[in-house]
Amino acid sequence: MTEMPTPETLEFAWLASTGSAPVLGPADGVVQPELVPGDAPLGLRKFRDRLTQPPRIQAWRRPADKPLRIAARTAQVRAHADLPTVTGWTYEGSQPGPTIEVRRGRPVLIDWVNDVADDAQHAARLPFDVVRVPLLASGAPDFAAAAAPGGRSIRRGEGPDSYPPLDGTEVLTAAAVVHVHGALTDGHNDGWAHNVATLGHTTRCTYPNDQPAATLWYHDHAMAVTRFNVHAGLAGFYWIRDEVEDALLLPSGRHELALVLADRNLETLPASAQGPGAAPAFTGRFLYKHAAFSFGPGTPLGEIPVTGPFNAVNGTIWPTHDVSARWHRLRIVNGAGARIYRLALHDTTDENLPPGAAIPAGDPAFAANRLTDALVVIGTDGGLLPAPSVPDDGTIELGPGERLDVLVDFGRLRGRTLELRNENGSALNAIPGQADATIMRFVVSRHRAVDRFRLPAVLNPEYRCYEQAHDEQAHDEQVWVGVVPPGVRGGLHPEMWELGPVGEGAEVPAADVIQIEQSDGSVLSLHPVAKLFDDTTSIFLAEGQWALWNLLHLGGPDHPMHIHMTEFQILSRRAWTVPRPGGTVAEFELGTGRTTRPLPEPGPGRPIDAVTAGMKDTWVLKAGEWVQVLGHFAGATGSFMYHCHILDHEDHTMMRPFVVLPREILAFHRGHGGGHH
Q1: Cβ distance 580 to 554 under 8 Å?
Q2: Which class for 392: exposed (0-12), middle (13-18), buried (19 or more C-beta within 10 A)?
């Protein structure tokens, strides 16, 4: 059995950053709010709110030359019925923003307007505080306090659960740029992170929509502050429809649900403002609460990406939804900053949990009522699968930025009460310091419903296996990217290295080098040609070219890797041994950032199932994995980005550009631009 890290280890910190760490029990000596157990385990009652659906805009009905105007602006929002309304950031007054529906092959113009202003019509400040929980006396990160509900910035009141703000965040305002995640469009429409628009400015983008039906989403992508802008509410769905999808007669209208999942924490008033003996009072505002970490006394402090104890769906914490007893379509996006969800439906009709008894994921009682065949996956990031797929154990994993298109036959579950739950690092009846497993509830009608939908055996006759295309392309462009753990050569954060081969006959560097033993006995030596976003661009692809991306994960947290511009298929997933989840490949040395001896050929990795094999633009990489994905870079040109979709990582060092140019221009660029590869 794989050894699991304990809370005082940094591997635990890396797992905690994605919500994948083992569930903590009660912590001694940590300030925890006195909360009511049972139906309000973390201070809020569950299922007080109805699930809301964002408004839908059928953009394809508009004249092609008439732009659709979507404004980012402030609005009054409420995350739970028992909370006050507060000011949030929205698109068109909605969290999430309007679902934009388009048709394949019909271009749409969108004017993205920055109208995020306060009451005085000045640029609005962030609608939440960003704080950092200090280290414990032992020097370990204080996960229990960071994950506990409540707290505040010291600027809003003193107390043992008040924390220092992160420098500079109190003056941030919305400089915004929109990325339609998964869209095939030229670089100047893609949401380049530097191309932010400030208050009063408009960015016009063209989306050709020349791609198959798929569940895309749009979100802010501003340089260095994406995590804050998305957390504030700047996200929404973008659905492409086509004739292939139409022919399936999938559930539609009120039977097609948009679900944006995200985890959140909430600010509380200081005890001095509540009166003696009062339960903590939530202000209604979110709280962006990091746990600090360091590599030892006297070393700089970093922040572990935020994960919160509450799950929100479409901006509402723990909603409920009444469904008719028939097939429904759930279009799901993981809009969290860092949390990786493992989703399953549980039949809770007869479930009776002891009040206050937290049951962590992994306990047999946790999965006792899981419905192992309820979720039928029909699509991934880039569109429909060739055929429906039912996960073996009833769970589906979804990293930040990933999407799933899922069907559920509620007709088989008439009169039942169901919960969609997260089985990754969570607990039923969570106590402060734990993440609650509940995401939302479905109450199925007792009455039979007329439902003519039948699950088809074939979903997407256009699906093409890329492995054959790879075999036909004798000279694929090879791209190498290495993900290295925090702490390399004293660095705080995990890093993403763009790699190039050490030239034949050249001396292998003494630091910053990854060597891999190949099947013919030779050694491939790779060194970073770029590490930071503003380093020289080194990846240049010809429009229409196939490119094989090699993603190497040498240790640290899971990373959901996202590549812009096109969709991909995974060709292989192999793995080197790590001592425990979140650990580092044995041959990689943190002090020098190099392999002390060539890595052996990796062994088999996690199996590639039917869902993973779908069209995708985002994949979760785990420590020790070597993943190969193949993409066809056709139909768009310009400068694009690839990055980790843990938004804190993206905002620090884990994002890089690449360029796609017409082949003829690229030949001149290579000839006169310094020998780009």
Answers
A1: no
A2: exposed
- Cβ neighbours, 10 Å, residue 171: 8
Identify the CA nearest to 467 among candidates 318, 553, 601, 570: 570
- H or E segment and range at residue 69: strand 68-77
Residue 34: its pLDDT value, please? 58
Long-range contacts of 456-461 (CB under 8 A, 24+ apart): 456/248, 456/388, 457/387, 457/388, 458/386, 458/387, 459/248, 459/378, 459/379, 459/384, 459/385, 459/386, 459/387, 459/388, 460/212, 460/244, 460/383, 460/384, 460/385, 460/386, 461/244, 461/386
Strand 396-398 and strand 540-542: the pairing is unpaired
Q: Which alpha helices (DSSP H) does 112-240 contain, by range? A: 143-147, 226-231
Token pair of 456 as six digits: 């088809």
Nearest of 210, 259, 267, 214 to residue 236 by alpha carbon: 259
Query: Please, where are the H alpha helices in 238-358?
Result: 243-247
Amino acid at 520: D
- For residue range 285-311, list pLDDT tens digits in order: 999 999 999 998 888 999 999 999 999
Ordered DSSP codes for 601-638: PPEE-S---TTTTSSBSEEEE-TTEEEEEEEEE-S--E
Q: What residues contact residue 494 under an 8 Å CB cut-off, 6+ apart? A: 14, 483, 484, 485, 486, 556, 557, 559, 644, 649, 653, 654
C-alpha distances (whole Å) from 73 to each of 88, 94, 402, 407 are 8, 9, 26, 34
Is 656 strand, coil or helix? strand
Strands 266-268 and 341-347: unpaired
Q: Which two tokens stand for residue 561?
A: 């890797």
Q: What's phi and psi for 371, nearest 5 deg?
A: -90, 105
Instruction: Name the DSSP letter for residue 176.
Output: B
Give which of 651, 591, 555 is closest to 221, Cα–Cα: 651
Report yes or no: 90 and 75 within 8 Å, Cβ to Cβ: yes
The two structure tokens encoding residue 626: 């070597």
**Can you give the pTM of this predicted structure?**
0.96
Residues in Cβ contact with 481 at an 8 Å cutoff, skipping those fewer than 6 apart: 496, 497, 498, 499, 549, 550, 551, 552, 561, 642, 656
Low-confidence ranges of the chain (pLDDT < 50): 1, 28-30, 37, 673-677
Give the pLDDT score at 394.
96
Cα–Cα distance for residue pair 26/35, rounded to 1 Å: 13
Structure confidence by residue, pLDDT tens digits, 454-469: 999 999 999 999 977 6
